[in-house]
Each structure stands twice: as structure tokens, then as C-alpha cells.
Design goal:
Monoheme cytochrome SoxX, STM4215-like, five-stranded mixed beta sheet
Length: about 525
């Protein structure tokens, strides 16, 4: 809701200007409907800075028409409604149609289809409104909309505590006495009578019209709510006496202002003009009547406000982002200063700790590199211990297999040289009886390539196993099964590949098979396996 709303109250014979700010109404100049008054109104709007003008029309030339239309949905229903509205009010652009539910089902054939109830209304004298809207267009001032005083009263009876099905609201404005009839909370009819008209007689005349229009049945109670100032309540109560079909309720105008949320003024109000203006400024409902081309400057104003709001939002986001970056930079600067101070502190401690030790034989960088190499050798350096453990486990599970010799070898990575060095490394490792690690190079010995030492990656290892099968009696099938069992036990180990270089039984075509079927102890059956352990 806007904090400041500029209002123009159009009644018979003049145009009043008002300013609503934070619930307080302030009157402005009044202009006559002539050339001088229109020019003065245009100058007044320009002096205000061309703000959006909300035009409230309280005219006697406002017509209400109730009719029934077939219940049609979608575009066809909208076209039917627009066509019927055009036929009803052809001479004025200020017209509207509102759906008010569907016709109740009374059981009669005509009402079986339950038509839509439509209330059409229009300002039948458009010249009275266009005189002022053209002045706004001439000075390029935005017209926010055109509202009807009768339609604004729809929220007043519930606010005053009246929820009866048939209510006639009677108020006095600058234009005269307005009577608005509400059925089940919906406006059905409104008329403007002269201000000096007798309230009781006008109420009886309005009731007679409602009965003839089939809006009120004979015998139904009509609750007439009269809103006026305190001094007029006493004479009106003597004139308006409740009867069998009409009940009068009197509400002081000040109490009505308070119940509708309007702040009390310095002096007690005499007319309901301020109540209408307050209802419009506080709620700012959608324009009751279309403004057509007269609203183009209002749309431009809305676009300009949207652009200003977007720019303000972008500027606020940029400001927040800049503040966050400044805070992050300050925090990073503090952290960097803290880290630099800690570095100086640890450097001083290191120097004080190293001072009593004297000069060292090797620079610190070389010592750091040596420690790194030692860790790499410990983690990735090849050693036969793992493969020997696997062979030992397999021998325990196949006792008929006896180990003859082992030859351990480190396989260089693809493209790396080091065949002879790998043989020497393997022989040296076996000679140390299974201890992990590689021997240090003796004086004058050939250096071992780094690729064979596990730098930068761990190399593949191979082990050549020479063994023999010893059986209690001659059994060629048993010897083959024993060798196969031994090889399968080794193949179950993770990352282990087993290849048979020489089987226990040579079945090549050019080799002669020999054997004896005696009961003597057979000679051992040798075989050779090649084991490879992937890194």
C-alpha cells in the first residue's frame, strides 16, 4: 500500500482533491467543471509532480442493471458478457459487469438451467468524467483508475456488524443521500437522492422498487442502516420508525469511521465523503471502470517505478556484495598477518634449536630429499618377503611338494632399463634370507636403477620356483595332481599370476615317456613355476 495517495472526488458540480497519508486525509483545492477550473486542476497536478490520480465518481448518472445470462464458461462466456454489456451501455466507455453467482434452483422449468446472475453498472454521462481525464492526459499525468462510490460501500455493512440478508445502507455525501441495497452481502442496487429528501419516504419508495424488481419479497424484513452524524440521529429516529417490514438502525458517523479503520479527526465529521476516500486509499482495489487510453501514462509510471525498484534492488545487492568482499579481504589480511607472524616465530625457534648443533654435513634440502626417498623405499620398494610367505603357505597345504630353489626378480617398468640390475637385486635379496629392502651398493658396485627400487611407482616382481614332487610309490597322475594343487594354491593369492614353465610330466611329442611299475620308492618329479606379483 502506498504511503501517500492523491485522490480526486468527483460529485455533481465540482471536483475535490484530497491527499491520504498514513491514514490521515487532508483536503485540497476544489475545482469547478469549467475551462478555468479544468486548467487550474491541470496546473495543480503539475505542481504536485504529476503523481497518480485516483478518481472517485459519486454521480447521480450511475445506472445499475441486473439480468440473467446463460451459464457459459471460457472465452464464449466472456464474449457473451462483453456483447451484452455493449448492448446495454453503448454510449459510455465507463461500464462493467460482475458475476454474482447463479440463479437458485426453485424447481420451476425456467430456472432448471440455473443462469448466471450478472450486475451491470455504468456511468451514463461520460462527459462529466472525461472532462477531467482529458486534462490529466494533456499534462501527461497518470490516471490510476475510476472508482464508483456505490461499489466501494460493499465492505461497510460487515464492518459495522450487519450481516442480514437484506440491508439498505443510507449515507449522506456532498452529492446527496445515497441508498445502497445489499442482498446476502452483494450490492444489487444504488441510487442517489437529493440531500434534503425525507429519509423515511425515500426508504419506502426504494422498498417498493425492490419488491417490484423481485429483489425483495413481500413480508421480508429490510434492515435499513442509517449512517449520519450525531446531531442528525435524534430527528431521524423520530421520522424513521421501524415497522413489520422495515427496521431502522442508526450508526454515528464517527463510530463508522472507527470501525472502518479510519483515524478520528480534530472535528466530528458531517458527511461520509471522507469514509469513501479512506476506503479507496487504504485498499486501493482494482479500478471499477476501464480507463482505456487514458491509463497509458499510468502504465508508464508503473514501468518507471518498477525500473527504479529493480535498480534499487541491484544497488542493494551490489552494496551487500561489496561489503562482503571488503570483510573477506580484511579477514584474509588478518589471517595472512597471523600466518606470517607464526612463520617468523617458528623460524626463530628452528634457528635457536639448530644453533647449538653447529654446521651439518649436508644441506637441509638434501636431508629432506633423503627422508622422502627413504619413505618411498619403505612404501614402494620391492622385497621378496611377500612372495616367500605365499610360497610357504602353499607348501604347507601340499606336503608332497619339496622346494629345490628360488630365483627372485624385479621386473622393470615398460621402457625402463635395468635387466642385469634386477637380477643382481633379486639374488642379493634372496641371499639376505628374506629380509625386506634392498642392499646398499658396495664400493665400486654398479648402481641400481631407481625404477627397480619403486621410484616413482612400485615395480612388478617375479619368482622362479624349482620344486619336486616326492611320492611313496610310482604314480604319474598323483605327481601331476600335486603340482596342480600347489599351483592353484599360489594362484588364489591376490595379485598373483602363476605360469608352469616345466611340468612334472613332459608330454611333448619328441620326448620319450619312461616309468616303472615296481613297488620301490620312485625318484622325485621336478617341475618349475613362474610367479608374478602385480604392484
Amino acid at each position: 500500500m502506498a504511503s501517500t495517495v492523491h485522490l480526486a472526488y468527483l460529485c455533481s458540480g465540482r471536483l475535490e482533491t484530497w491527499r491520504w497519508r498514513r491514514g490521515v486525509l487532508s483536503p485540497g483545492p476544489v475545482f469547478a467543471p469549467d475551462h478555468a477550473g479544468v486548467d487550474a486542476f491541470a496546473d495543480h497536478v503539475v505542481a504536485l509532480g504529476r503523481p497518480p490520480i485516483h478518481l472517485l465518481a459519486d454521480l447521480v448518472e450511475e445506472d445499475f442493471h441486473r439480468l440473467l445470462l446463460p451459464h457459459v464458461r471460457g472465452r464464449a462466456g466472456r464474449n457473451l458478457l462483453a456483447r451484452r454489456l455493449q448492448q446495454q451501455y453503448r454510449e459510455t466507455p465507463y461500464r462493467r459487469a460482475a458475476l454474482q453467482g447463479r440463479e437458485p434452483d426453485t424447481g420451476q422449468a425456467r430456472s432448471a438451467r440455473r443462469d448466471d446472475i450478472v450486475l451491470m453498472s455504468a456511468l451514463t454521462n461520460p462527459a462529466a468524467v472525461q472532462l477531467w481525464t482529458e486534462a490529466l492526459t494533456l499534462v501527461e499525468a497518470p490516471l490510476a483508475g475510476v472508482w464508483s462510490a456505490a461499489l466501494l460501500y460493499a465492505d461497510v455493512p460487515p464492518a459495522l456488524g450487519f450481516t442480514q440478508p437484506h440491508i439498505l445502507l443510507v449515507t449522506w455525501q456532498s452529492c446527496g443521500m445515497r441508498q445502497s441495497y445489499f442482498q446476502d452481502g452483494q450490492l444489487k442496487f444504488s441510487r442517489l437522492a437529493p440531500p434534503q429528501a425525507e429519509c423515511a419516504a425515500e426508504t419506502a419508495r426504494t422498498r417498493q422498487f425492490l419488491v417490484s424488481a423481485h429483489l425483495l419479497e413481500r413480508g421480508e424484513m429490510l434492515h435499513t442502516v442509517i449512517v449520519t452524524h450525531d446531531d442528525a440521529i435524534a430527528p431521524l429516529s423520530e421520522q424513521c420508525v421501524s415497522g413489520a417490514e422495515t427496521t431502522f438502525h442508526f450508526v454515528p458517523l464517527a463510530a463508522a469511521f472507527e470501525r472502518c479503520g479510519m483515524a478520528p479527526g480534530d472535528s466530528p465529521p458531517l458527511l461520509a465523503d471522507a469514509l469513501l476516500l479512506h476506503l479507496l486509499a487504504r485498499g486501493l482495489p482494482r479500478s471499477h471502470y476501464p480507463t482505456g487510453a487514458d491509463s497509458r501514462y499510468y502504465r508508464l509510471w508503473q514501468t518507471r517505478v518498477s525500473l527504479y525498484a529493480s535498480a534499487l534492488a541491484v544497488a542493494a545487492c551490489a552494496l551487500v556484495w561489496t561489503g562482503f568482499n571488503v570483510w573477506a579481504y580484511a579477514d584474509a589480511s588478518i589471517s595472512a598477518a597471523t600466518l606470517a607472524e607464526e612463520a617468523r616465530h617458528f623460524t626463530a625457534r628452528y634457528r635457536s634449536a639448530m644453533a647449538p648443533l653447529g654446521p651439518v654435513a649436508a644441506p637441509t634440502a638434501d636431508m629432506r630429499a633423503a627422508v622422502l626417498v627413504d619413505r618411498l623405499l619403505a612404501d614402494q620398494g620391492p622385497a621378496p618377503l611377500d612372495m616367500l610367505s605365499m610360497v610357504s603357505t602353499a607348501l604347507e597345504r601340499t606336503p608332497q611338494v619339496q622346494l629345490v630353489s628360488l630365483a627372485w626378480r624385479v621386473e622393470p617398468p615398460p621402457g625402463a632399463a635395468g635387466g642385469a640390475g634386477s637380477e643382481a637385486a633379486g639374488a642379493a635379496a634372496i641371499g639376505r634370507e628374506g629380509q625386506s629392502g634392498l642392499p646398499a651398493s658396495a664400493a665400486g658396485a654398479e648402481s641400481v636403477p631407481s625404477a627397480l627400487l619403486g621410484i616413482p611407482v612400485k615395480p612388478r616382481q617375479s619368482l622362479r620356483v624349482e620344486a619336486e614332487v616326492r611320492l611313496a610309490r610310482p604314480d604319474a597322475r598323483g605327481a601331476v595332481d600335486s603340482m596342480q594343487a600347489f599351483a592353484q594354491e599360489l594362484a588364489r593369492q591376490p595379485r598373483m599370476t602363476v605360469a608352469i614353465e616345466q611340468p612334472v610330466l613332459d608330454v611333448r611329442p619328441d620326448v620319450k615317456l619312461t616309468g616303472r611299475a615296481t613297488g620301490d620308492t620312485p625318484p622325485p618329479s621336478p617341475f618349475i613355476l613362474r610367479l608374478e606379483l602385480a604392484p
